[in-house]
Amino acid sequence: MVEDLEVLNLKAIAGEFTYASWQLALKNYPLYKKGEKKGNYRTMLFPDARASECGFAFNYTHKDPVLKKIFNDIRWRQAMSLAINRDEINEVLFFGKGTPRQAVPDPGCSFYEDWMGKYYIEYDPERANKLLDEMGLKWDKKHQYRLRPDGKTLAITIEFNQTKPTIGKILELTKGYWEKVGVKVALKGEQNVFYQQRLRANECDMGVWAIGGASESYSRRASPIRLRPPWHWPQSSPLGGVEWWNWYNTNGKTGEEPPEEIKRLYRLVDEWLATPRGTEKYLKLGKEILTINVKGLYLIGTVGLVPRVAIIKNNLKNTPKAGSILSIEYDLWKPYQGDQWFFKR
Fold first, then answer.
1. Is 226 helix (H, G, I), strand (E, B) or coil?
2. Can you tell me the distance from the alpha carbon of 191 to that of 305, in angstroms, rounded to the nearest whole number?
3. What is the rounded CA–CA span in Å between residue 77 and residue 70?
4. Which H or E run contains 295?
5. Where are the domains of the chain?
6. Confidence band for 272, pLDDT divided at 50, 70 and 90
7. Would you call the peptide bond into 230 cis, given omega within 30 degrees of 0 as the criterion?
């Protein structure tokens, strides 16, 4: 266990790990390659099915009624998605090796359609501004920031787990994109435990996380965390609409009653989970569930399908070969039967 990521990188290039991947960042790929000979390891890039390296869900049950109304307007979510320069994020942070896309399952999903990943991902700040104008979110006198309907500055605070450096870098870029269309943004990195407490308490303006667990396989064997509110694990870190989940989870005894589309989404997901995989009904339900999520832009993605970097000791054999998928969607290393790996003398 290594808490400090800089220390982890130093240990990695020193050859102290037999194999590693989970906390290694693609941006450090050249560093890992440079240390191969001295550390006696090989650096590999594996395809990864992670939907998005960073995704956002606004707080649709916000305690502030003004922000709540804004976040629940589809034009807001469309504008915020169009304001993100995903191509730049991809080039700056991922060497252009990722795929600009929404936070949807990988193309291997049996009910995925190509338009879903591309929905509202183009960088179009002019169109984003028009949508915000349509909402009546006027600029202040200095044309610096937009104003809420109550006359206050339209400002949001993005809280996030500060131990995730890649997410922090993406958020720094996103802050600049959103401020160009008049939304004042403050970034606030926090310890993960505190951040999760804030999410559960419905205190955040939005939820931010790396969007793993979106695949068809993960949704069936673990939980459909990316297909229904709160678009993550509700017990630990609900990203958006936590009070909708509380309503659903308690049969309306607590929480906030969601709109009809969200109620339908809950019903469809429950039915989908109970339907045999691969059947005509299963595919029909899956497509409808994904279509509601995508067109609603409840969970907005940035760049996904980014190759996963890994280092493996040169004398460790029977490990994954080049081209093998290494992804949390498929339990990372588990499919490669580590109990059958061996050291070559």
1. coil
2. 27
3. 9
4. helix 280-296
5. 5-47+307-343, 52-136+209-304
6. very high
7. yes
Any idea which residue has 């297909």 for tokens?
227
Classify domain 5-47+307-343 by CATH number.
3.40.190.10
- Amino acid (1-letter code) at residue 268: L
As a residue count, the chain comes to: 345
Neighbour-count burial of 3, counting CB atoms closer than 10 A to its CB (0-12 exposed, 13-18 middle, 19+ buried) = exposed
Tokens 């993406």: give the residue.
Answer: 170
Q: How does pLDDT run across 51-88, given as a tens digit for each residue? A: 999 999 999 999 999 999 999 999 999 999 999 999 99
Q: Which CATH number fits domain 52-136+209-304: 3.10.105.10, 3.30.930.10, 3.40.50.300, 3.30.110.10?
A: 3.10.105.10
Evaluate the CA torsion angle 116, 210, 197, 155 in order and state its sign. negative
- What is the residue type of 190? E
Query: CB-based contacts of 191: which residues, under 8 Å, 6+ apart?
Result: 161, 162, 163
User: Dihedral sign, CA of 120, 121, 122, 128?
Assistant: positive
Q: Which residues on neighbouring strands pair with residue 209, listed in sequence order?
A: 55
* Contacts with 287 (C-beta within 8 Å, 6 or more apart), sequence order: 111, 113
* pTM beyond 0.85: yes
